[in-house]
Specification:
With about 400 residues, this protein is mainly beta. The chain has 2 helices and 20 strands.
Length: about 400
């Protein structure tokens, strides 16, 4: 850990004398915005980087800090100040059409360090490129396009963090490509990687919970099942219609054999997701949403509190209100936004009396934000949320404010 922190500060101070020129082969100078002609699959490279003089390395990153005051059924922990994350990017053009990019995230005051992305890309043809290393599985849109400064909300979507495992990445390899035809763009990604393990159903929460697989410390070294996780996505974007993506992720998740001996039956986990985003041309209203379905094969001896089917998603609506030069910031902008979220961790009814199984959550979050530039955002959110337990008792109601700042650097 000390070596990683030391490397970060070395790179930081080196940039003080570095040129602000951006390598056009790596990235654009501005962070991706809602009207740029790119797909979500381009998000890993559409970030602001700073070159280190004549060194063939570019660095960047983003930070998030916030304040929250939330209460559930009148009970609150009071004012909470948090430094959510500090993320460091390091990229390099190794050779013509050969690139490397890494994303390292520091969370919980540096107690937790995650390698979220570290891959070598070899560009052979626009429709056929190779990627190998620690890849970010392209399930839905948020998993790849998750950088804090791009969003009007302090908290990440519930469906992306508590149903799907947000920033879900694994060691693996695969192919990807993109093509253009007049006003249309088409892209695809196909990867084989490590994947889930038995902790998605065997955990302290006593429920089916895919994000628990992120806690496995050696998941970049071995797959619990010894079989690959398949992740595939296709996306299409039209200038006026917007971008539509369909993705699939699935494979065997449990350890079914050891030392060549079969110890369990094979059980599979399948995830299907649809994502969509567009900008309404007249009012420049930006709309983005994602919905996912999860299917998990359960052992016969597990009770009904473990869901074999889950679904949920979110919808964000962002309306620009005011854009002009403010306090010397050119093109500064105020936005009004709202996020609607829903997750059902246990879809279905109890077998005994056909009563709906609960374990559901609904949230609505209005927000106002100020962007002095496309790379920095100040945001204020209010969350109103109610959550049902397994037996659909009266819901726990949560409400409160969140405020924070997130910026690329």
């Amino acid at each position: 850990m000390k070596n990683i922190v030391g490397l970060f500060f070395l790179l930081f101070f080196a940039t003080q004398n570095a040129s602000s020129q951006i390598d056009p082969d790596l990235l654009s100078q501005e962070a991706i915005d809602t009207v740029s002609q790119n797909l979500n699959m381009d998000a890993v490279y559409r970030r602001p980087f700073l070159n280190l003089g004549k060194f063939p390395v570019a660095v960047g990153g983003y930070a998030e800090a916030n304040w929250q005051h939330l209460a559930t059924d009148g009970v609150s922990e009071g004012h909470q100040f948090q430094m959510r994350r500090l993320t460091l990017f390091v990229a390099s053009s190794i050779n013509k059409r050969i690139k490397f990019l890494s994303e390292i995230e520091f969370e919980e005051d540096g107690k937790e360090i995650n390698i979220e992305f570290a891959s070598i890309d070899i560009e052979m043809h626009p429709l056929f490129n190779l990627r190998s290393g620690i890849i970010m599985n392209p399930i839905g849109a948020f998993n790849q396009n998750h950088d804090g400064p791009k969003w009007e909300f302090v908290d990440r979507p519930i469906s992306a963090t508590q149903m799907l495992p947000a920033t879900w990445s694994n060691a693996g390899f695969g192919i990807f490509g993109k093509t253009y035809k007049k006003k249309w763009m088409f892209g695809y990604e196909l990867y084989l990687s490590g994947g889930f393990d038995n902790s998605i159903i065997d955990n302290e929460l006593s429920k089916t919970y895919l994000p628990n697989a992120k806690k496995k410390s050696n998941r970049f070294e071995e797959a619990a099942s010894g079989t690959p996780l398949l992740t595939a996505k296709v996306a299409a974007k039209q200038t006026q219609f917007g971008e539509l993506g369909i993705s699939y992720m699935g494979g065997i998740y449990n350890t079914f054999q050891e030392d060549g001996l079969v110890i369990d039956s094979k059980r599979k986990c399948h995830v299907i997701a649809i994502d969509y985003n567009t900008t309404l041309p007249q009012m420049q209203t930006f709309i983005t949403g994602e919905w996912a379905w999860i299917f998990v094969e359960m052992p016969l001896n597990y009770t009904q509190q473990y869901g074999s089917k889950q679904y949920g998603g979110f919808l964000d609506i962002v309306q620009p209100l005011y854009k002009r030069s403010i306090f010397g910031w050119k093109n500064a902008q105020f936005n009004l936004a709202c996020r609607i979220e829903y997750v059902d961790w246990n879809v279905g009814s109890f077998k005994e009396h056909q009563v709906n199984i609960g374990d559901e959550i609904f949230s609505i979050m209005p927000a106002i934000s100020f962007r002095p530039s496309s790379q920095t955002i100040l945001r204020l959110n209010y969350r109103y949320q109610f959550q049902y337990d397994l037996f659909m008792n009266p819901p726990a109601r949560t409400g409160g404010f969140s405020a924070g700042i997130s910026s690329y650097f």
